[in-house]
């Protein structure tokens, strides 16, 4: 997109004014409703703290937001491509249907053509879009305290086993394994770089990860095993606080996080994670530099392992560690996110 996203205040003012100059050039996701809109949407305007702005429709969908039924932000893409229009209408008519490539073939459509078209317009395939929509509905229902069967119905799954299997693939455990009387509670947080899962007790944040991190199921299982009360659904104060701080971070307002943390690791791991938090936003370190910072210059590999076991993404900024030659190295949230986070934080470094 040949368009530099303005700062948060400019975009919010445009949203309030329904400024047509931004129509199709920026979109707003409303965290309190899970809906994304054009900036010209006629609906009542959300509070600033409930807004996240995105450059593309695909970024909104990838972050877990659903399209507004008043301003129809998907309409321009549909109008530009009859194939997209047809499938979006089919998805709207059958939001709970478990779509497959066989269904596309039955409609006389070539699966590879559909895949390319949706990737071009939204950055994801049609099947991925349909799956995200269904799972998000189920997670929202569970977070609201609905029973599993109600969440299954909201997510459009015909059987409880299918819903449990899909949920388990995403989070590593079925809905029934989440405790009703849990000490730890999980909730969904939307960010411009994708959906995240936060797990908190009443006093501290224990986990914050992007939902597509491969280690997430293992990390949740470890937390589940270590906690007598297991994990449930909900949003304790630390989750509320970190969601607000993430909003300010991505809006370019503040790179500081003061949410109380529970850093569950060995003494050495906690030493590394503390050193990571001391790296200023806008700066990076190599693994060898980090090892020197903690007084263990020969422990470079151990530092790298501790970096990889961090389960508090962004808050404990392991993305600020790069290779000695300046190249990006492994990041559980994906190298594209690591690059984007470093780019975002450069503006904080320049503001010093």
TrEMBL record:
Residues of the signal peptide: none
InterPro entries documented for this protein: Ada-like_dom_sf (IPR035451), Ada_DNA_repair_Zn-bd (IPR004026), Bifunct_regulatory_prot_Ada (IPR016221), HTH_AraC (IPR018060), MethylDNA_cys_MeTrfase_AS (IPR001497), MethylDNA_cys_MeTrfase_DNA-bd (IPR014048), MethylDNA_cys_MeTrfase_DNAb (IPR036217), MGMT_N_sf (IPR036631)
Catalytic activity field: a 6-O-methyl-2'-deoxyguanosine in DNA + L-cysteinyl-[protein] = S-methyl-L-cysteinyl-[protein] + a 2'-deoxyguanosine in DNA; a 4-O-methyl-thymidine in DNA + L-cysteinyl-[protein] = a thymidine in DNA + S-methyl-L-cysteinyl-[protein]
Matches recorded under PROSITE patterns: HTH_ARAC_FAMILY_2, MGMT
UniProt keyword annotations, A-Z: Activator, DNA damage, DNA repair, Methyltransferase, Transferase
Record-annotated HTH araC/xylS-type domain positions: 107-181
Protein name as it appears in the record: Bifunctional transcriptional activator/DNA repair enzyme protein Ada
Organism: Parasedimentitalea denitrificans
């Amino acid at each position: 997109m040949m368009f530099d996203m303005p700062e948060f205040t400019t975009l919010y003012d445009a949203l309030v004014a329904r400024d047509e100059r931004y129509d199709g050039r920026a979109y707003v996701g409303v965290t309190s409703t899970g809906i994304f809109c054009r900036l010209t949407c006629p609906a009542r305007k959300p509070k600033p703290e409930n807004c996240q702005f995105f450059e593309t429709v695909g970024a909104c969908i990838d972050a877990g937001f659903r399209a507004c039924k008043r301003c129809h932000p998907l309409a321009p893409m549909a109008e530009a491509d009859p194939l997209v229009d047809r499938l979006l209408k089919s998805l709207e008519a059958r939001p709970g249907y478990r779509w497959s490539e066989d269904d596309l073939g039955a409609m006389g459509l070539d699966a590879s053509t559909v895949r390319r078209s949706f990737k071009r317009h939204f950055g994801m395939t049609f099947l991925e879009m349909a799956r995200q929509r269904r799972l998000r509905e189920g997670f929202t229902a569970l977070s609201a305290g609905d029973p599993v069967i109600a969440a299954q119905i909201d997510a459009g799954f015909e059987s409880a086993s299918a819903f449990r299997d899909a949920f388990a693939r995403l989070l590593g455990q079925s809905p029934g394994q989440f405790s009703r009387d849990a000490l730890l509670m999980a909730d969904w947080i939307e960010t411009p770089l994708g959906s995240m899962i936060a797990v908190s007790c009443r006093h501290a944040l224990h986990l914050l990860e992007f939902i597509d991190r491969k280690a997430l199921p293992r990390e949740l299982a470890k937390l589940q095993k270590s906690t007598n009360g297991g994990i449930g659904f909900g949003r304790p104060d630390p989750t509320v606080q970190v969601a607000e701080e993430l909003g300010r971070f991505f809006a370019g307002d503040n790179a500081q996080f003061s949410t109380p943390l529970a850093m569950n690791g060995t003494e050495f791991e906690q030493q590394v994670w503390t050193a990571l938090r001391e790296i200023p936003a806008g700066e990076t370190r190599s693994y060898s530099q980090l090892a020197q910072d903690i007084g263990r210059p020969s422990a470079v590999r151990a530092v790298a392992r501790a970096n990889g076991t961090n389960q508090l993404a962004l808050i404990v900024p392991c993305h600020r560690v790069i290779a000695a030659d300046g190249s990006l190295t492994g990041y559980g949230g994906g190298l594209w996110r690591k690059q984007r986070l470093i780019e975002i934080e450069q503006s904080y470094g320049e503001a010093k």
